[in-house]
Fold these 3 entries.
Entry 1:
Amino acid sequence: MELCGATRLGYFGRSQFYIALKLVAVAQSGFPLRVESINTVKDLPLPRFVASKNEQESRHAASYSSDSESQGSYSGVIPPPPGRGQVKKGPGSHDAVQPRPSADQQEPASPVVSPQQSPPASPHTWRKHNRHPSGGNSERPLTGPGPFWSPFGDAQSGSSAGDAVWSGHSPPPPQENWVSFADTPPTSTLLTMHPASVQDQTTVRTVASATTANEIRRQSSSCDDPWKITDEQRQYYINQFTTIQPDLNGFIPGSAAKEFFTKSKLPILELSHIWELSDFDKDGALTLDEFCAAFHLVVARKNGYDLPEKLPESLMPKLIDLEDSADVGDQPGEVGYSGSPAEAPPSKSPSMPSLNQTWPELNQSSEDTAIVHPVPIRMTPSKIHMQEMELKRTSSDHTNPTSPLLVKTSDLSEESKINSSVKFPSGNTVDGYSSSDSFPSDPEQIGSNVTRQRSHSGASPDNTAPPPPPPRPQPSHSRSSSLDMNRTFAVTTGQQQAGVVAHPPAVPPRPQPSQAPGPSVHRPVDADGLITHTSTSPQQIPEQPNFADFSQFEVFAASNVTEEQDNEAEKHPDVLPAEKASDPAGSLRVAQTDGKIEEKTAASVPANVSKGTTPLAPPPKPVRRRLKSEDELRPDVDEHTQKTGVLAAVLASQPSIPRSVGKDKKAIQASIRRNKETNTVLARLNSELQQQLKDVLEERISLEVQLEQLRPFSHL
Amino acid sequence: MAVCIAVIAKENYPLYIRSTPTENELKFHYMVHTSLDVVDEKISAMGKALVDQRELYLGLLYPTEDYKVYDYVTNSKVKFVMVVDSSNTALRDNEIRSMFRKLHNSYTDVMCNPFYNPGDRIQSRAFDNMVTSMMIQVC
């Protein structure tokens, strides 16, 4: 009790009523402060206040019959109100009676060390006193309690009035806040402010303390979260917000906010600074969070706190939009920019400010994440339509949908896979799965992705901010794409696996280097980011040999899925051993892509599509199973049940061709048909590959240009 | 490297000037002032005034003093003039452009502040910090 009373009386002399309401909170927050404040107060203010305190105490003792301590505390309490009352006694003299009793009751309830009370009270009152004349003055000139005490003495008579004024103000604190700005002296605002936050009160006290040492100590003690907005304050802010903007999710335009905050009578320069701090996304309008932060800063400033250079963490607006795709952002401990990116993309912020803000965030974020995000997008195979589909589905992800070159029939399935896979690639790319992504199809996608990323420049940084989400999709995409390619290769080179292997290695390298510089375009990615990207490319190269395997796996996967796809069995046996020899990661990737590809190939099977959408999690497992099944299927070379038509047909036709030759004319004709079919299929594959090659080359060129442009940025 | 950065308003009065304290600021102010004529010349020559970052670099104005004056004009005829000391490694054109982009972004943020009246001196601390960082970085 003593402690509580001491803290209350000592610090919350004015806000007795508030203290009563927040007794617990005060006690909790006040404990650490009490000790310090008590100690510091005793040392410094005591000497000054002793004399005046005696006067007050004597006076109060005469007027009140509470214990000496309470009286002392009361006297400490009373000085502030009288000070106020002195300044303006108008407000609620009539209320004095009612508040008085309550104040008296409060005081007796808290046995406080009177000496401690008075010093803090005096600083408070003094501070208030200063406030009164200056209205919105932000300085805390500790001119010294001396002159202030005299007013107290004079105000003794008006103490009741002061109390009344005080108490009168305390009840409607939140609502009067701005009104008081306009109509009443700052006292009311101070009152309102105090009850609003215990911390503010404590900090206020620290500010008010006559001794800088006290201030420093108290401030340090209250530095735990001096800028934290209490619930009361927040509710008040929200109410004020609604008076201007009924929609809590809406924005307050700058002009309206300007009028509102001008009422606080703070200097324009300070208001400008407050705006700079609180308008996180620099869009010229305030969201609810921004408004609360600005309001809180104004309140703090009126209470004597200097404005911070950077927005305190507790006042950072909540990053909502970014959370979806990117990291919410780092606290301004580094800079408050983290918040801005989050808010910027969703709404109003122009691309430039958001970019500006996101850049620091991006820089802060790991290079890998920043790099990974863009890379995967480009990495994914290029099927323009696939990409578009993917982009539409994965708005947050910029990863390009892996476009299986081969699977035209299963475009739909692929797209579905891509969407799901898009999520993976981003994550996987981080792991270094990019290898599969570098498939030739990437050039197309990369090009389109680059453009898309640029279009989403405002938002892309946000997406890239959070490392995990973006990368995931990519790996899956890349895999699917790579698998598709593999399949195509497998189909085309069903007879010659060597050819298949040869192809993949050639293609992937291009997309990788192109991809690496690509992402940097949107962000001031250091060369390191590029390097990391390029490093992934080599990984891709080694994985290329797996493409052939992938194709085989795809076949297996498809066959497994559809239970009718054993066509690739013959190819799998050769490839499987090679694949297994490859890195397990690659196999996993293949498996994932296989799963995806299978689904793609199994366009006819709607189930595949659905499976495709959920390949991310299951792929590894099912793929492994598929691998196993592949092994089983190896012996089933001759089993060709149409999986997806063309490829299956091609595969089937190829092996059957030689057989038909040696058979009847019918067999020859059949073989001829098959050959034609295979020819058409191969032709398609060739065209697709050529397109991919062109895209890759284009992307490479563009990326190189971007790289050159980005290089100077690295210096900055 | 940027020893002086100035923001000139449309009416050719300065909104913000900051120089490294080591040098005589008056000299920089004079250079900035003379560069305004060159800027106006270029703007008039462009006809439709395609405001483009690339087109507004004045290049080297004082070769003897090893200074380069770069200029960047916005669509609202607000000019950013930057005096760079060439004694250090020559800044690449792209770097200059990125610096101007940052300047422009900061200026936009200042404009977004409803408490800032266009035409007033720029007193934003954030803007000051950004300019200071650019000037210090050069060194």
Note: The two ends of chain A are 59 Å apart (CA to CA).
Entry 2:
Amino acid sequence: YSDHCPLTPLKWARQLFLINSFSVRRSARDITNMSQQAANGLPCRGKVLNLDNMNPNVRRVEYAVRGAIVQRALQIDKELKEGVKKPFTEVIKANIGDAHAMGQKPITFLRQVLALCAYPDLLDDNKFPDDSKQRARRILEACGGHSIGAYSSSQGIECIRQDVARYIEKRDDGISSDPDNIYLATGASDAIVTMLKLLVCGKGRDRTGVMISIPQYPLYSAALADLAAVQINYYLDEDKCWSLDIAELKRAVTAARQHCNPRVICIINPGNPTGQVQSRQCIEDVIRFAKEEHLFLMADEVYQDNVYAEGCKFHSFKRVLFEMGPEYSTTVEMASFHSTSKCYMGECGFRGGYMEVINMDPEVKAQLTKLVSVRLCPPVPGQALLDLVVNPPQPDEPSYDKFMKERTAVLAALAEKAGLTEQIFNTVPGITCNPVQGAMYTFPRITLPQKAIDKAKAEGQVPDMFYCMKLLEEEGICLVPGSGFGQREGTFHFRMTILPPTEKLKFVLQKISDFHIRFTQEFS
Amino acid sequence: MSATRMQWLSPRNLRLLNPGRNESLRRGGSGCRSLTLPLSPGRALSGPSATRRGLPKEKMTENRAPPRAKVLTIDTMNPTVRKVEYAVRGPIVQRALELERELSEGMKKPFVEVIKANIGDAHAMGQQPITFFRQVLALCSYPELLNDSTFPEDAKSRARRILQSCGGNSMGSYSASQGIDAVRQDVARYIERRDGGVPCDPDNVYLTTGASDGIVTMLKLLVCGEGATRTGVMISIPQYPLYSAALAELAAVQVNYYLNEEKCWSMDLGELQRSLEEARRHCNPRALCVINPGNPTGQVQSRQCIEDVIRFAAKERLFLMADEVYQDNVYADGCQFHSFKKVLFDMGPEYSDAVELASFHSTSKCYMGECGFRGGYMEIINMDEEVKAQLTKLVSVRLCPPVPGQALMDLVVNPPQPGEPSHDKFIKERTATLSALAEKAELTEQVLNTVPGISCNPVQGAMYSFPRITIPEKAVKEATDKGQQPDMFYCMKLLEETGICLVPGSGFGQREGTHHFRMTILPPKDKLTILLNKVKEFHQRFTQQYS
């Protein structure tokens, strides 16, 4: 497994510099020149498509989770393979929530059904349990020509959307879910971008503003840059375990109204990168806020099974919305998102996911259906996988015990690792870490000596990027600097996934602790 | 904004409705002026009202105004999304699905099943998957099967190779955003073999979520400028509506060049020049898209034509996009697939060092027909290094293309070799599919050309016939009265009466005053024969009825 890296860090840095330094005026002028030249048939130099005349929105996109530091990690990986001597023997990529890459085993039942769907001759094989065969048959019967190689309907296979709706009803204690409101997607990312795309309109002060938490998952900032929407930051309260504060939401929306048209609020619960799990009360408050301020609510709930801390529980926005009564449940427009990539499955590669839309204007819904039809359909293996996630083996079925055992083992290990991570980091002077109540990451705050900050700035780097790069070069551990997610000015963090196997995680935590102490000494 | 409507606005709302907003209210959703192609009639763009726009409710109730509207309404949604049209899955397909439901509920219809000939969906039409591909995918999904002696060794070795290049040896891990390294290497070797040794660098290969994803990503990179400097993109008419849909969404300017129906839908340099010169008056044409073999028109371009297009692109400084997803689907005698890449490199360094090109391929077509896996790749040539870095960054936001689709792509570009246990069966299956398609291509042309009022070019390649239909004046009038395109009217009637779902030519674009439909040639031969006869009978009936 290795990503490819065509860039040296220096070149990458230069590009980042270029990306940030071109003025719109300059590129507009170049474009005009170019078209005139072409029209006059004069000889032209340079590429048709270059950094100056490419889509300026794309240039503004940043995605730290796979950014400069990861490129460098891949390069080091390659150097190690080529025999270059390093102070470590392998690069540990703790930058991303990629469970299987970290050694988590797939759930047997899920993979059995997928194999049966891929190669239906196996339906005659008596090694496969009956419930896996039944599931496979049901999925295949819902596919054109009984093949997962056929396009599905653009909204997703109907029987899978029905299963998703039933799953949501069960999760939300009977609150009804309409399969027509379910859209299967290419991972949750796809659905989130599609939803944001629908919402963006207006120019200048009328441009759609979208409220996102800081720290945030950078898919949001990247999508907003790509769509040229206005990003409105609201800050989570690090001192209160990264909780959401309504006064802060009010401050953010009021300030934003001066320069854009805030129409959307995005919430990630359980939190990424911050790992907090929202209380029921907090969710109610957010819903009330959304209603008062007339905002479309987007609830990113891909970590809904990843809740570890005692006293914490996952509450879906949908459920809370409906429990607040018709005043809210018939008015607040909402989309919530789920995925096959996280929870106990960790099946990122299949790109399975769904969104449920609530109270969406029927005309807009028709537009949404039209829009997703252009991409034909989400990958069918991912749809099949999602079906198994929402319709797992039941107590009376042959695969039930094994399924439960595997599922419980994964979630229990994650809970243990969440506790372990918090514990070890909090023993290190200069690292403070909120409890990892849920999700798959810790986002500790790190104290950086002034000398280090100065050195970073002198090198044109953000201080926590400087820190993470040094950690990578010295220890082979790849983290993502907090600046990639956003943080309060003057504070520094990193995101680390808790996914490595316990023994490896202990090793990583120890190495980071040692590094931090060394780093602090070196720069004080 | 009318004075009456202003009355119930509170001072706060007036503040909210700053000049910029009033401006946008007046202009409504008419922001994009770029669509010149008369696509099927969408929803009328009604003038947005303040109510629909969704002002805060409490302010309205204070003033006894109508209840608060949705945050997101047809008037306050992204106007470029509204302009998107995608006929292949448009209203006619919606109606087909409805009819299917009605049939399953026991409703009486003049037919027993709906035949969806609107889309190139091979497996849905009964084409069987290639055994080898599915064996490897099953092995990758459930590696315990690697111990199963019923699977051939070459399937196992392919599966092992793919799994070894996945994180944690699992297809469930994210891959590199550009695609799995080993798969990209295999794609590069495949391209080199296909192109008689012209080198291909795996770094220039990006795996994608179907070819559509690659095409949209490439177009997105190219779009910039405002007003007369806005990027224009040349697309053929008729075109595959992914292009017009993507351009509408990106608010790029669609620049139409017409294929010559009389010359078997060939591309004409004079027409390219005309189209480009006209477009230069109002936009900045920067890209030229070519679909070869053609969709929906089924033509296969000659080597000479490709050379001419490349010369044109070089001279006019256009980025070339070559959609080659039907590269194995060539049926007509004397026709051969030539890749743009190969021709470009055969033309020497003057061109091969200069012309920027992206070409696209997919697992969905050819003999595989594996649409559901959403596998595909693009190869980029002569792309500016800085732009390439931006492309790599852009695709990283979506993390990675679906890994099963990448695995499938790997098998397509690296199929069983002579001497390997699966080779014979693979070749047999592949040949059977392609020769059946060739036979059906001919049958379609033959039968449709026997019908007075239908004329059909040979289906040289791809998977569709795009015959021209003569619609009687009375029918045109009735359609126009109903606010429908005449060929939509025709296709809807065909659907209601026979259960056959086709896509009207207006969804792809056609010369004014001409009418067509697109029909896939994929149904099994006996079914295709029935289908063609039904279309024939319908056309005769329709012509009589309206004459």
Note: Residues 1-43 of chain A have pLDDT under 50 and may be disordered.
Entry 3:
Amino acid sequence: MDEVASVAELIKNFAVIYIVDITEVPDFNTMYELYDPCTVMFFFRNKHIMIDLGTGNNNKINWALKDKQDFIDIVETVYCGARKGRGLVISPKDYSAKYHY
Amino acid sequence: MATLADSFLADLDELSDNEADILEEEDVDAGNMEEDVDGELAGLESLNYDDLDSVSKLQKTQRYNDIMQKVEDALQKGSENSDHGIVLEDDPEYQLIVDCNALSVDIENEIIIIHNFIRDKYRLKFPELESLVHHPIDYARVVKRIGNEMDLTLVDLDGLLPSAIIMVVSVTASTTSGRPLPEDVLGKTIEACDRALALDSAKKKVLDFVESRMVYIAPNLSAIVGSAVAAKLMGIAGGLSALAKMPACNVQLLGAKRKNLAGFSTATSQGRVGYLEQTEIFQSTPPALRMRACRVLAAKSTLAARVDSTRGDQTGKTGRALRDEIRKKIEKWQEPPPPKLPKPLPVPDSDPKKKRGGRRLRKMKERYAVTDMRKLANRMQFGVPEESSLGDGLGEGYGMLGQAGSGKLRISAAQSKLAVKVAKKFKEKQYGSSGATSGLTSSLAFTPVQGIELTNPQAHAHQLGTGTQSTYFSETGTFSKIKRN
């Protein structure tokens, strides 16, 4: 998730990325269950948008994505769905087998 | 130009007095022709080809000898007296330069006339040589070297011509239709060659002199193209004011060699550049940019020549500024393109898909449209089990296809809607058909239920669109109120 800055430039026309340190701002830790080292959540006009990633947890992404393009695709899907009024969008890539044994 | 007229006239054996009169008139119009040159042209009227002196008189004229003498003196004196004063026209050397320019043009014309003379004489001996060697001075040198020799292997042409052309000349000479010249004719020809070469060396001297003085005459032009090329340009244009009056496209072509010998490749020939090819700027540009560079060079050097002809800038500063401008332009062309900036992605779904329409698209869509056959197959009669490809309800169902009681027994390929429209346009050409669309259909057919069945020619097979026989929703209907003629 360290290439977030370069991604921010690419998607700046439809998405803005805020990086929040949960140790400094612990106000939302219980509300959104922010306990992992890194969590990505999506909001559109003050509404939380859920993504069906196949992992069982539709609220957030709490692992490191391998590919920058994957992240951009997810953001685009969220944007398109949220603009249409959907609260749940389906991720273009399935992460149910993200832990390859 | 009168000189071209001269050479054409010299070529013609029969000269009428009329032509000579017209020539005289043209001659009078060209104001810078002097008395003795007039006399030279009058000599053309009564052309006696055996006598070289009647053809070429320039070397005998006083003017020629005067100027050559002055040039020799000036060349020996070297370049002194840098104090030229403000009004350069009064300087005797400037007048000499102007005379030299006119003289160099005259010398060139003279050389052409002598070349014609030599060529006419030498035609008896070696007629093909004139088409192989174009340059007059080269021709004269070769003629002098060959002389009356019939066997060219004994003649050494090295250094006179490029070796490829020497080869062609030798080969042509072995099959030439010429015969050796008589002694006196040969003598005259050699004398003419000598004269041509003498004129050529005189021209070189004149050009050298002009070149050495060029920095004082035309400082701006010499700043851009260099004094040698500037001298050549001035010489061939016939003076600084003549050069200044030319448009830049002509300046580019001054001194351009025109002919390419037949049979040699033209792929490597640099077309459309003259003396400007010899400038340092041109030589230092990469070959890909050379044509653009020579156009810029011609334009700026024309500007510099115009400044010089009006003596606007004696110091040459304008010329140096123009030269820097040219250099900067050429450098800019060679810059690599700017690196591509990474563009942010466009907003998804922001632009609605551009749906195209039109005849072409409709025809394309027709290829994938649902056909009448498929429509019939998709529908079923009520209460009647449909036939299927594998029988007994297995396989693909046939629906209404081929059922008894339908108007058509064989489904022919339906005409596309566009074709129908076109057909309606030319309604008068349509003959009244009974409904059968191809000549192979017959009214008689065998059906499984009723055995033999006759098609009803009046029944329109458009069960699909016109279930109620309504023309309002007809697929091929038109506006009812608008009269179609």
Note: Helices of chain A lie at 4-10, 29-32, 68-84.
